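Lab meeting minutes (informal)
Scribe: AK
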Amino acid sequence: MRYSIFSLIGQTLKGHRGWQPTWRDAAPKPEYDVLIIGGGGHGLATAHYLASRFGINNVAVIEKGYIGSGNVGRNTTIIRSNYLLPGNTPFYELSMKLWQGLEQDVNYNAMVSQRGVLNLFHSDPQRDAYARRGNAMRLAGVDAELLDRERVRAMVPFLDYETSRFPIQGGLLQRRGGTARHDAVAWGYARAADSRGVDIVQNCEVTGVTIMNGRVSGVATTRGPIRAKKVALVVAGNSSRVAAMAGMRLPIESHVLQAFVSEGLKPLIDCVVTFGAGHLYISQSDKGGLVFGGDIDGYNSYAQRGNLPVIEDVMEAAMGLWPGLGRVRLLRHWGGIMDMSMDGSPIIDHTPVQGLYLNAGWCYGGFKATPASGFCFAHLIAKDEPHPVAAAYRLDRFATGRVIDEKGAGAQPNLH
């Protein structure tokens, strides 16, 4: 069923009794051409683009939980392409362009809202660094504007501009950035892939990877063995654990990243704002809640829950930027597992095992990369060669020294 104003009117006249499930709850078949491990946004996007762009339909996505239960539903919904380095900028700009046409592509309302992303700066050196990044973005064809304090004040008048410890001097604005409803992104890709014959198998956990003569031939799961000509590993914070089943040790650490939502408020802020003197990013959802996040937890963990010290740290940053938030009640928070790479940039590449492909190491950048990640991973699987904009995301770059260190933080994942 295609969603449109006509189908809505038709179902309204029928009392909404004719809607069909958004996707089939498929049982696994014995064999597929491509088996994707991980039913998050990146895995589902890969399946969609394999079927829609590369004509590969004998595909299954297997997910140990339910669709949307992982990181794709555990983030702060921000989309942007304001990167500095040549290895990153074209990739994230491709992602932004795919975001702009996503709802028409998958025929699903993902609530993509290009409300702008504003990075605040608080010192002259930070202004110069932002000017450099903005210039690099414009040279790459990405929109960027450097704003002075008064132009920032006109956009977000509630912030503390003069009396705070770190007075706001201005900001770098990308107007095409914004937000998208995170779980709707997963549902939209799932529906689009299902409509092209992809099997989406939920509650199916991988327990082993079968390798014969250096080539992958399938996986063992809690719902029985599944054979496959190609296997794609895209499991975010669990990348190291699943890769270990294939005998690989990845340059990745898993950390918890918490996000927070306040009680519903009247419209206060119509863009995404990031604090330049601390790690805080904040926006307002369409339901009125303020959505914000900060640093990862400082230790490795696979637990999808946070801790009080990080909550305190994020709230301090929030009060430093916007003192009025002290009167707002926090409604809920959650934790997602970040697969933090050693240079803060992702991996989309072959592995030493023939027929086994890896998509991992997304750190903080996983949600905004979803469309390009899926498209480039599908390109790699279908053609056995990297897409040009993802060619730098090689697994062996940590051995060859060709790292993509966007923040210059070195091999310390907790600082990226």
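Next up, CB showed the second protein from the same session:
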Amino acid sequence: MKKKKNTLIWNIVFVLVVVGIGFSIYKASLRVNYSWNWRAVPSYLVYKDQVEIDSPVNGFVEGYESGAVVVKSTDGKVYKIKADHPTVSKGAVVSVGDEVGYNSSYKAGPLLMGLYMTIKVSIASIIMALVIGFIAGLMRISDNPLLRNLSILYIELVRGTPLLVQIFIVYFFIGTIFSMTRFFAGAFALAVFEGAYIAEIIRAGIQSIPRGQTEAAVALGMNYYQVMRYIIMPQAIKRVLPALAGQFISLIKDSSLLSVISLTELTKAGREIVSSTFSPFEVWFSVAALYFIVTYTLSLLDRYLERRLAGNE
């Protein structure tokens, strides 16, 4: 009972600290005399698009029925022009090109489209990075010097150079040679970069399994692939899952660098909005919140998988 009371007190303190940080940010914004405009932010996510509907003939409006404006042309023909919202009244004279109504629908705003591109390129990169990292990780612990040295060269080369430089090299050099699209070049650059770190995670996970288990499996007649499939990898994956989740979260955040090759992901979408609205604070806070939603969701998924895998032990 006493322990629960102490936990409640600390949770209250935590909420007060968060509120205090938010209040400090608000007070700091007052010092720079900034005019907040949060009302425009929802339209960057979803907005109502209107498409003008024009009359294709000269004539007059007979009425409105079944979601269409009825126009009778000068030669006596009747036209039903689909328009959800008519802007002309019965009996009005219209000419070719005159607006008779408009259709409206909700469409994704630039931030939502940028978020979609970020998720899309991140998923593609994660899949490729897992394949690259898994192969490089196995090569890293191989007894074959050629495979082991190639893996070491790849890992050290990638980890020793900035991601931004690698993106430029992949996009302008490798992408030009192999005619890669901007999307694939960006996803591939991220995959190559993250694959090097995943390779080390896979290597560490495999080597954390006591060698005695491998020797016992071999003594029972298993070959190398059976040992890896049934003994080593199931245990190694459980151990490296938190590290892999952290690497995936890092990859999602690193995808913001793809804006340098004009891939309109979330960061580039935010920058374009700022350049046209001059509302940097609202936009960048919104961009940060969207990144947080994606990465925190991934963290929750990782915790769920960890609990499920722990329950199977």
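CB comment: The two ends are 32 Å apart (CA to CA).
No objections, moving on.
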